[in-house]
Every structure is written in structure tokens, then in C-alpha cells.
Design a protein that fits this description.
This protein is an alpha+beta fold. It contains 17 helices and 28 strands. α5 packs antiparallel against α6, α8 runs parallel beside α10 and α9 packs antiparallel against α10.
């Protein structure tokens, strides 16, 4: 036990003298230096208002990557204030409407609550034309995901499930599932980004506010802190939920490897390096920060904004620089860097050209643009390099263009959700004097959803997956579009029909795509039909991504399967570090001396990587003593930095 424990173990500058000499463009008027600065109220009184654009005018004001065009999918008066969307198996779009944003700061607060609309494209032209008020009077809805002809809705402090059982398009069931989620007055840190995972679970971002969450209707339910954590929910068993790695403010996405990405206002892209449920196995393990910044310049990435500066933003920057209002003045620069990053999304569709597949997309609502990055490996981490030199993927001259979220769509394109407000900044972050001259609710009757598509793109017919048989759904697991795979997987898990077992096992062996082969594994697992043969087949697949997912599903069988345990042992020499990384975690589910020997081999080959060290250590609540004794006999290893640290531990142990 002793061996186990030890083995796991403003700049303050001088204040500026306030002699205002600031050319602040406020409706073509210049503020002249004075002995006594004008009051904030007097300066704010000269703030000009910014006119709105129609949806068509807004598209015309966009500077778009030459290979793409932007098409209107839905707009006012059908929808208003769209904060999140999801699209069900029949192509119906559910839209969270958020008129409450910034309403607390309005002089005449209408006291409206949010709503969820259900939109239908009745003529198949790719533009939604009818809307039904699916759920009304729901407080601050910021996230949504489809399940079983209904939707889960994030409405902090609650998570609801709502469903229409009468066929009139209006939900007659509204059931509170979880409660206790945090929120903030500014409205910028709320429950968001409900995503369907390949593991047949709903993954939820709890944002920076976290909360103490518990089951809403259980007789006894202990509240657990979700600060800095995410939630994983099994929609078929709502009697419990799990915590997992989390962070970020508004936006969470997963790629085909299952890696999660998050963002915050000033942090455009972070990657969560592991599922911290693995860490819980070893109480002695201390891990580094799991959220790794992957944008090289971070907040200060140069953004090529083409919209004019909002007068209020320039004035606030001046007030911050002269210490009249709290906050950093960012070196006197009011824009051109990330201050409103949101909606981080990995493109997983099939309509864009191949070189765009897997790109990282993030909006900046403060700079009226959409940023694109290319993900490149750096060991086990990734680097998100700017994709568009000297310009943005999409930038707009429309100051009301506010891309808050994105969705991989049924047609293989990417949908962008434009909140379309004159003021997107939380009113709490503006001097209160400003609010007498700005309307925090300006634009609350409008909102747009756009399709980002290749030039000349023709929208295909609206899919109707709900009418497909199980065999037809299995075939869609091999589809090249992520929405089709996710939706088919959700329906297979929802139906719990074992008639497709043979087709799923065949897909594991002969699927045309790597995504199809590993999706079939998870479908078998979700149906309770995962078998040793299918797992062994996937563990030797030619694609590393399949082997990674095979290791994850194999964790449920490895303790009872000698063949899988032996296969794990052979995989310590896999040429792909992502496979070896997952293997180090998955070995924690195995038993016997061979798993300890496999961990020794991984430690000898991959010890320089700090994340491999974490993964190996997570599996060493049992077996740490054996692994350390074996490593202490390896002379070459003991000469390394990691080995020298081990030698020190062994020296201490020998003296005890």
C-alpha cells in the first residue's frame, strides 16, 4: 500500500492620470481634451443606434470563403432569438427561443419567458416555412436535443423532457428530470450544447456556473457539484446521471474520435484530454488541467473583422483605459481579438469538400464573424491552426450578425444560428449609464438560421428516418454524414430491437467506413448484444480510430475474456499513439498479471508524454507496486527524467 500511495502521488502598473485626449467616433463627434472629463452619462448620450438589416441584406453583407455560399434556412417571423437547435429524424427543427437575454436591463422589461418552436419545411425547398409553438413559457431555454418524439431542454436551473403525445405539434408532457444547474445574471453562463455521443449517451455542457445538480423527482437524491464538469445522461434510464470532464462557457463539440472541444468568451478552442471518470479509479492520482488551449495565439488570435466598431464598444474601451470603468482595455484596442467566442463545432458532414472535413468552427459574436481552424496532431494533443490567411471563413459588415451556435445538418452542410441582436454584450458588462441610451432588447423579435454550403449546393429532400426499418437504420451507421450516423444510432438505441444483430455484426467486419464499423460496435453494446468476436475483430481493424473505439467498448468484456485480455497485451506495440493512449486507460478494466506487464511496457515506451503518464497511472490503483518494481530494474529507463523520479521514490521506500 505504501508503494501504491507513493506511486500515484496584475502586474500593478502606475494608474493613468486622467487627462482625456480621446478621439472617440460617436456619430462623427469628437471628444476634446478637458481639464475635467465629461461625465459618462454625457458621453453615453451621444451613442448612435445601429439599424437592423433584413436576412437577405445581412447575407449580402457577408464576406464568405470563395468555395462557399450562405443560404437562409429559417428567419423571422417564424422564429426569434434562436439560441440552440436540434433536428429530429424526420427533418423537423426544434428551436430554443431566448427573448429573456438582457431583458433584466431593459427599462420596460416585458417579462417574457422563452419558448421552443417546431419548424417544418413543407415543400422540400430547404427553407422552413411553418412553425408550431411546441413549448411555451419555459425559462431561459439554452440547449435542446431530440429523443423519442420529444426533446430534452436545458432551462437552468432545470433540465426538462417535453413530448407531444397527441400529434398536434404541442408538447403535452413536461417533466423535470434534473435540477440545480447554475446560471448568471448576465446570461452568458448557462446550460448548453446537448450532444449525442457515439456511446449512446447525451453529453451536456454545464458551463462555468456549474451548479449543485440532483434528480428532480427522486425521493432521495444527493446534489453533486458540476463546477468545471460535464454531465452524461442515459435517456433510457433517467434514474441517475454521471459527471465527466467539462469546462468552457457556451459551446461543446465532439469529433469522430470522441474527443471533446469547448470554448469560452476569450478562449476560442480547448480540447479535453480525457474523460475524468477514468481518474476516479485511482484516488492517489493528481492530473494536470484537462482542458488544453489548442489555438496557438488564444484570445489574442488576430481576427479580421470587417464590421465597423460599435460606438459603445469604443467608448467603453476609452473608459477602461482611463480607469472610469472596470475591466481591461486590451491595450486600447476595442476589437479584433476573441471576446465573444461561442458555439465551437467540429464539421462532421459530407457536403463540404474533403479538405474541410474535421475543421474546427467557432463564432465570435462580438466581432460578427465565423473563424475556421485546421486541427493538426501534436503528440496526443492537437493544434488548431488558422485556416484562412488574412481573412475569416465568414465575416459580416452587419453589426447584428451574432453566430452563437452551429449544427451539423441532415443535408451534410453546417447550419449557423444567428441570434441577431443590436447588443450582444451582457448588459452587466457595460457602464449602467449606457443603458439609458441603448435598447438591450433591440432585435428580440428576429433571428436567423443560415446554411453554410458549397457554391451551387442544391438541398436534397428532407430525410424521414423515423419510417425506416432496423436494417435500414443499420446501413445508415455507415453513412458519410455525421447527422445520419448520429440519428440512426439514436433510433437504434431508442427502439431496442435485436432483429438487426446479424447486420450489426456484419457491419463491424465489413463496413465501408471506419465510422460505420465502430458505430456498429456501440449499437451492439447499446442493445446489450456486444460479443467477444465483434470486439476482437475491431481490435485488429486497419483504422486506428476503430481500434480506439473498440478498446472503449471492450472494457465491459475484458475482465471475463482471456482472448480480449491477450489482445490488449499485444496492442502495447500499436504504431498509433492514440491507440496506446486509450489502451493505457482501458487496461484499468482488465485483471491479472498480463495487464500489469502491459502497463510496464507502455511506461517504458511512452513515459516522456505527460498524458500517457496520466493514463497509465489511472489504471494503477491495483498493480502499482508490481509496475514500479519492474521499472526500477530497467537501467535505460532509470537514466531518463521519469526514471530518476522513480529512483527517488524507490530510495524513499527503501528507507521506510
Amino acid at each position: 500500500m505504501r508503494m501504491t500511495r507513493l506511486a500515484n502521488t496584475i502586474l500593478l502598473g502606475s494608474p493613468l492620470i486622467l487627462l482625456i485626449v480621446c478621439a472617440c467616433c460617436l456619430s462623427s463627434q469628437t471628444v476634446i481634451a478637458q481639464d475635467k472629463p465629461p461625465s459618462i452619462d454625457k458621453l453615453a448620450s451621444k451613442l448612435p443606434r445601429i439599424p437592423a438589416s433584413t436576412p437577405e441584406q445581412s447575407v449580402d453583407k457577408m464576406q464568405i470563403h470563395p468555395a462557399f455560399e450562405v443560404q437562409i434556412v429559417a428567419t423571422e417571423p417564424l422564429i426569434r432569438d434562436p439560441a440552440a437547435i436540434d433536428i429530429d429524424e424526420n427533418g423537423r427543427m426544434y428551436v430554443c427561443e431566448l427573448p429573456e437575454y438582457n431583458a433584466y436591463a431593459a427599462a420596460d422589461n416585458p417579462q417574457e419567458k422563452g419558448a421552443v418552436k417546431r419548424l417544418v419545411d413543407t415543400n422540400g425547398d430547404g427553407r422552413y416555412d411553418t412553425a408550431t409553438l411546441f413549448v411555451e413559457d419555459i425559462a431561459y431555454p439554452t440547449a435542446i436535443i431530440c429523443w423519442d418524439d420529444g426533446v430534452f431542454i436545458g432551462s437552468a436551473p432545470d433540465l426538462f423532457y417535453c413530448k407531444d403525445t397527441t400529434g398536434d405539434g404541442i408538447a403535452d408532457i413536461r417533466k423535470k428530470i434534473l435540477t440545480g444547474f447554475g446560471s448568471d445574471l448576465a446570461g452568458e453562463a448557462h446550460l448548453n450544447s446537448f450532444r449525442w455521443g457515439v456511446d449512446n449517451r447525451i453529453h451536456i455542457s454545464t458551463n462555468l456556473s456549474g451548479g449543485n445538480v440532483h434528480l428532480a423527482n427522486a425521493a432521495v437524491s444527493t446534489a453533486v457539484s458540476t463546477r468545471g464538469r460535464g454531465i452524461i445522461l442515459d435517456p433510457r434510464d433517467l434514474s441517475e446521471f454521471e459527471l465527466t470532464s467539462g469546462a468552457g462557457q457556451h459551446g461543446m463539440s465532439m469529433d469522430n474520435w470522441g474527443r471533446k472541444f469547448v470554448c469560452s468568451n476569450s478562449v476560442p478552442a480547448q480540447m479535453l484530454m480525457l474523460d475524468d471518470r477514468y481518474l476516479a479509479r485511482n484516488p492517489y492520482l493528481v492530473s494536470p488541467n484537462l482542458a488544453v488551449d489548442i489555438a496557438p495565439e488564444g484570445k489574442h488570435t488576430e481576427l479580421f473583422r470587417i464590421s465597423a466598431a460599435e460606438p459603445w464598444r469604443e467608448l467603453r474601451t476609452m473608459l477602461r483605459r482611463t480607469k472610469q470603468f472596470r475591466g481591461s482595455d486590451e491595450g486600447g484596442k476595442p476589437f479584433g481579438f476573441f471576446t465573444g467566442a461561442t458555439g465551437i463545432t467540429i464539421y462532421r458532414g459530407d457536403a463540404w469538400p474533403q479538405e474541410f472535413h474535421g475543421n474546427l468552427i467557432v463564432g465570435d459574436v462580438a466581432n460578427n464573424l465565423i473563424y475556421r481552424a485546421i486541427l493538426k496532431p501534436k503528440g496526443l494533443e492537437l493544434v488548431a491552426d488558422r485556416a484562412d490567411a488574412g481573412k475569416e471563413f465568414i465575416a459580416s459588415r452587419d453589426l447584428w450578425f451574432r453566430p452563437v451556435q452551429f449544427t451539423n445538418a441532415p443535408d451534410g452542410t453546417l447550419y449557423a444560428i444567428d441570434f441577431s441582436r443590436e447588443l450582444i454584450e451582457g448588459a452587466a458588462f457595460l457602464p449602467p449609464e449606457f443603458m439609458k441610451y441603448l435598447d438591450p432588447l433591440s432585435g428580440s423579435k428576429q433571428g436567423r438560421i443560415y446554411r453554410i454550403a458549397p457554391r451551387g449546393f442544391s438541398t436534397p429532400a428532407t430525410p424521414n428516418l423515423g419510417k425506416l426499418t432496423m436494417l435500414e437504420l443499420v446501413s445508415l451507421l455507415d453513412h458519410t454524414n455525421g447527422w445520419h450516423r448520429d440519428t440512426a444510432a439514436r433510433l437504434i438505441y431508442q427502439r431496442q430491437d435485436s432483429s438487426a444483430i446479424s447486420a450489426l455484426r456484419q457491419l463491424v467486419k465489413q463496413g465501408k467506413t471506419a465510422e460505420g464499423r465502430f458505430s456498429a460496435l456501440y449499437a451492439l453494446q447499446g442493445l446489450g448484444l456486444l460479443d467477444e468476436s465483434s470486439v476482437l475483430t475491431a481490435l485488429i481493424d486497419s483504422d486506428a480510430i476503430v481500434r480506439v473505439h473498440a478498446l472503449r467498448v471492450a472494457e465491459s468484456l475484458v475482465a471475463q475474456s482471456v482472448a480480449i485480455t491477450n489482445r490488449f497485451s499485444y496492442m502495447t506495440t500499436d504504431h498509433d499513439i492514440q491507440v496506446r493512449y486509450q489502451l493505457a486507460f482501458s487496461l484499468g478494466a482488465a485483471q491479472g498479471q498480463s495487464r500489469n506487464q502491459a502497463l510496464v511496457r507502455l511506461a517504458l515506451s511512452d513515459h516522456p508524454d505527460k498524458w500517457m503518464q496520466v493514463a497509465i497511472s489511472s489504471s494503477l490503483f491495483q498493480g502499482a507496486g508490481f509496475v514500479f518494481r519492474e521499472l526500477s530494474t530497467q537501467d535505460a529507463f532509470l537514466k531518463t527524467t521519469t526514471g530518476q523520479q522513480l529512483r527517488s521514490i524507490v530510495h524513499v521506500l527503501n528507507g521506510m
